[in-house]
Amino acid sequence: MASDGVVLMFWVPMLFCLVTLLILYFRIDKASAAPKNFDVIGGRRMILGLSGAMFAILLYCFVTALMIGLSKVEQGHIDYATLLKSFLGYWLYMFSFIGPFMMLGVIILGLPIIIVLSKLRLASHAGALILSVLIGAIYSIYVIYNPYNNWCKANTLECANSNFWSVFVACFVISLGFSLAARFPVWRNSET
After folding, report:
1. What is the distance between the alpha carbons of residues 52 and 110, in angstroms, rounded to a whole number?
2. For the chain: N or C, fewer Cβ within 10 A?
């Protein structure tokens, strides 16, 4: 399979990124990482947020691999013993396959949006929720106008709804991981 080649290419950089962000997360001075007022997000807060996003992606891949494995058991493709024996491989395969693309999305799209949200005083957990809803809605609207298969052409609203929820959940987990690790407030950041 072609995806096996992608996993072989990305598992070492993802492991390196995970270990580096873990070390940086614990080495950053926590007192200076959470200033009372912030107009522009500093480098420390970004590193904390990126490490949180990376671990949120790891958690998301864990749950996704578990759900896929349980659906394979329900369909009769494998039994529970096989799932338990090979679950770690499913999880690492999922993380190595989709993790780099999710982190690239966080870096290319997420960081500029977080900076804009900081300017609007919405760099918070509530801002993460709003951002996730907006990204899910934009993708759903795109799917409505550009259905990607025949089922989506015939069932446009169901396809848009299922795409909204899958994108929303992924974005919310990642943005909440970022905002928790970056120590954002619950509602709004302080006035500058």
Report:
1. 13
2. N
Inter-residue contact 10 to 100 (CB < 8 Å): yes
> Residues 69, 87: contact at Cβ < 8 Å?
yes
Question: Exposed/middle/buried for 75, CB within 10 Å: 0-12, 13-18, 19+?
Answer: exposed
CB 192 within 8 A of CB 64: no
Tokens representing 16 are 């390196």
- For residue 58, how many C-alpha atoms fall within 13 Å in the half-sphere facing its CB? 16
Q: What six digits make up the tokens of 145?
A: 């106008």
- Under a CB-based contact definition with an 8 Å cutoff, are residues 128 and 181 in contact? no
User: Over the stretch 133-187, which tens digit does the pLDDT of each residue have?
Assistant: 999 999 999 999 988 888 888 888 999 999 999 999 999 999 999 989 888 888 8
**DSSP designation for 42:** -
- The residue among 106, 110, 129 whose CA lies nearest residue 188 is 129
Rounded to whole angstroms, how far apart are CA atoms 80 and 74? 10
Do the beta carbons of residue 145 and residue 189 sit within 8 Å? Answer: no
